[in-house]
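thought: fold this chain, then report.
action: predict
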Amino acid sequence: MASGYEVGGPRECCGGGERGMSLPDLLFYVFAAVALVSGALVVWNPFSRNPVNSALALVVTILSLSGLFVLLRAYFVAAVQVLVYAGAVMVLFLFVLMLLDLREEARRRVRWATVVTGLAAVGLVAGLLLRALWLSGPGEPVPAVGVEGTVRPLGRLLFSDYLLPLQVMGLVLLGAMVGVIVLSKRDLP
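observation:
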């Protein structure tokens, strides 16, 4: 009983064995590594300065995060992650990138004050995160939540208690869509 797998007995991996890693554990590490690497490529891409490549790395990050949600058995959140973020939001990002003058952005020089300010902000956020982790200590285990399997409770809540915020969000998205159409039609004769 000293193997670390006391609760459910020894876990079996693809080939079996007491020290093996289960498939969900392996998939977790793969999805997490892909999310971290592609997330870093969104912000800092040494291979290309083209922002479209950063947007594609963001799509990979979103897809790997949806894989993590599937591993957590949050299927609805995973589907929304793929449909809304990887689908609709990325189309809007790419549309905005196509409207920008990328040649002018490529000619822009990086100022040292901007780099120093950015590094100071990253250091401050990292310091606050490490301090919060240091002060939090070990916590209580989180109880397992029963999986309902349907989105009916979410739909009832959205269309009863949160109907006004849902409608306001729809109007904001409609305004953004009209603004994009106006901006894209501006250059036409």
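thought: worth noting. Confidence is low (pLDDT under 50) at residues 1-13.
final: tokens above.
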